[in-house]
Amino acid sequence: xxxxxxxxxxxxxxxxxxxxxxxxxxxxxxxxxxxxxxxxxxxxxxxxxxxxxxxxxxxxxxxxxxxxxxxxxxxxxxxxxxxxxxxxxxxxxxxxxxxxxxxxxxxxxxxxxxxxxxxxxxxxxxxxxxxxxxxxxxxxx
Amino acid sequence: xxxxxxxxxxxxxxxxxxxxxxxxxxxxxxxxxxxxxxxxxxxxxxxxxxxxxxxxxxxxxxxxxxxxxxxxxxxxxxxxxxxxxxxxxxxxxxxxxxxxxxxxxxxxxxxxxxxxxxxxxxxxxxxxxxxxxxxxxxxxxxxxx
Lengths: 141, 145
Fold this sequence. Notes:
Helix content of chain A: under 10%
Oligomer: heterodimer
Number of helices of chain A: 0
Shape of chain B: globular
Radius of gyration of chain A: 16 Å
Strand order of the largest sheet of chain B: 3-10-5-8
CATH superfamily of chain A: Jelly Rolls
Number of domains of chain B: 1
CATH topology of chain A: Jelly Rolls
CATH architecture of chain A: Sandwich
Radius of gyration of chain B: 17 Å
Strand content of chain A: over 45%
Shape of chain A: globular
Structural class of chain A: mainly beta
Largest interface: A-B, 69 and 72 residues
Largest sheet of chain A: 5 strands, antiparallel
C-alpha cells in the first residue's frame, strides 16, 4: 500500500476579504482506508497541431474505482490552451462532455470513473498549431 | 484586478520504489485568454443525502456570454466514513467519485447549455465544500412580474 498525498492551496483577493482554501487528501482505494498502488507514471508530450488527441484511454483504468487524473499545461502563454473533455471524439465547446480549458500553467486534478467507453477517454485539443506541452499522470488502485 | 492562485503538491515516497514522487504546480487563474485575473467567486458548504439523488451544483443553462469561458470548480467531500462518496457527473457523463476527504479541481467552461455539474451522495450523507472561480457571471432574467 502506497501513501499518495495531494494538497491544494487556493488564495484569492477577489472578495474584500481573503479567500483561502487549503486541503490535503490521501488517495485511497474505493471505500477503503488503503492507499492507491498503481500509476501511469508522469507523461510529458508536445503537441504541434490542433487535432484532437486521446491522452488517456478508458482501457487504462478500471471502472468504478477511485482513480485520479492530474493534467497540466506546462506552458506559460495565457492566450493558448488545451480543451479537455471526457470523450474520444469531442473536445468541442458544444459537447456536454467538455470539461474546460487549461491555459499556460493551469493544472487540474479530478477523480476518474474509467467506465469502459470512449465517453470516458480523456481527449485534448490544442488551441494552436504552435508547440504546446502537456503533462499528465493517472493514479489507480 | 484580482489575483487568484491555485497550487497543487502531489507527493509519495513509496508509490514508485526508489523514486520519490514530487509534483508541484502553481497557476494564476486568468480570464479567458487574457492576463487579467478572474473576478467572480461563489463558494459555500452544504450536505447531500443519499435520498437527494442527483442534484445540480451548477446549472448548464448559463447566459450565452458566460459559456465557454475560463472558470474553475473546487469540490471537497468532507465526510469521514471511507465508504461515503460523492459521484460527480457532467450532465449524463460520470466524471468520478470523491471519497471521504477527497477534493477535485478542474476547469469548467460550461461550453454547452446542458453541461450541468451534478453531485450524488452514495453510502451516506456527505457534507461538502465547493467554490467556483469564473471569468464572468451574468444574472439570469427574473420571473418577477
